[in-house]
């Protein structure tokens, strides 16, 4: 029955997409005309340096998902599930790109409706042309800003994969991702970054997406780990990560790509971008170092998986702060991320017994929360006049604003993610049956194998 | 002396090893193998081309035991390895002519344990 529902849902999705496509040519032509018009006398306000940095940053952020996060996660699962994780990352990239063009960007950044959501006026990128949109980025084509934001919309649901890896059926995963992007990511994105969004008006600081991306994905990850339940054999009878070198390459690509994520969020090739680049690097290095020290204290050996987990935790934590703190502040944020995320992964997960398979919550949720608070501690107007001073610069009030923004994100993501998962579970069933989980998702969901044993 | 060979579902290995340990059977050799039974493997598909009847991944364990341990060994493997689904594998019991411990040169039953 559920399998039939899966097929029906898949077909429905395909028909929906086909139904929408015919709307397209109209907008496509418009864009082409605009392009032609813009090409003859170049729009005077577009800055070439800013635009090239933002386009490069967009490509860097895509690289974080494929192949960065894909390899990071792919190496951590068992041999029989590696393709399923790579496939989920790749499918999210394709699916959310289409969703973003059709309605995602409009819901997130389109004309505000009561501070809660963007309208559908920009459906199919109608009116999103090559002239800058001064509300968001005054010196780059509006489409450059749109494509940069698209890459964020892609990586956010991809982060959640880490929690439900190795046991979720593929079609329900696709449907859940589409719903989650539309009902969780897009509204939150509007609240925090959209003109008129209510969290933006509160004065909370989130430079590159600590709340929208990391706390949001981290909480959805925790919820999905709880709703799906533990993998068979968890926690005592699980094989270790099947290919740590994959994970190390993935973490390295994440680190490099993150310069696009954070320094790109300056939306220009300027001093603020350089500052964000520097503090991103410093916090990451410090967090990797700190995790190694924690490993040394608790396990007597610094581990490879430890140092890369620490680095990713540092990247997560510096994200909201990256446009507002000094390199010394970044050292504090990185050290804090190393300690706090280590404790959450090593002890909190074991204590509560949820199966967050690849620690999406432990690193992104917890690290993101720490980053939001840490921004309230270390932010200073000396780095960014458009920011605010934090606790260590005489303004304890900022911590409270940061806390409030983080908690709103937690509650919204928790409730809506839970509802969406339950709905999809009811209609299609989220979890693979025992036999299929045992065989592995590569073969049972995709009819492929990553590795051959015979030549 | 018997030589027991069993083909198992890969994810049942830990369970089987634990049950063997509980019955004080410690010596085991484990190999990754490919195989198929009557049900054949699951067909893989590459760019719509179907690779029919491909082999399934299994684990082979081999254990040399004295007569007194034959029954407990078979029990441990059966209990630990059974999922109730097709493909749980088989146990083969072979008679064993000789066993020599390389370190000491001991032979026969004493060399097994």
Walk me through this protein's architecture.
The complex is a heterodimer of chains A (about 450) and B (about 110). Chain A is about 70% helix and about 0% strand. Chain A is an all-alpha fold. Residues about 20-35 of chain A have low confidence and may be disordered. Chain A has 16 helices and two strands. In chain A, α3 (about 50-75) runs antiparallel to α4, α3 packs antiparallel against α9 (about 245-260) and α10 packs antiparallel against α11 (about 305-320). The longest helix of chain A has about 30 residues, at about 395-430. Chain A has one domain: Orthogonal Bundle (Ammonium transporter fold), CATH 1.10.3430. Chain B has about 110 residues and is an alpha+beta fold. Chain B has one domain (about 1-110): Alpha-Beta Plaits (2-Layer Sandwich), CATH 3.30.70.120. In chain B, about 25% of the residues lie in helices and about 35% in strands. Chain B has three helices and six strands. Chain B has helices at about 15-20, 65-80, 110; strands at about 1-10, 30-35, 45, 50, 55-65, 90-95. In chain B, the strands form two sheets. Chain B has a four-stranded antiparallel β-sheet with strand order 2-5-1-6, covered by helices on one side. Chain B has a two-stranded antiparallel ribbon with strand order 3-4. In chain B, β3 (about 45) and β4 (about 50) form a beta hairpin. In chain B, α1 runs antiparallel to α2. Chain B is elongated. Chains A and B meet through α15 of A and β3 of B.
| Number of DSSP strand runs of chain A | 2
Largest sheet properties of chain A: 2 strands, antiparallel
Distance between the termini of chain B: 11 Å
What would you say the CATH architecture of chain B is?
2-Layer Sandwich
CATH level 3 topology of chain A: Ammonium transporter fold
**What would you report as the Rg of chain A, rounded to the nearest angstrom?**
21 Å
Q: Average pLDDT value of chain A?
A: 91
Extract low-pLDDT stretches of chain A: 22-34
Helix proportion range of chain A: 55-70%
Overall 3D form of chain B = elongated
Major beta sheet summary of chain B: 4 strands, antiparallel
Oligomer: heterodimer
End-to-end gap of chain A: 39 Å
How many extended strands of chain B? 6
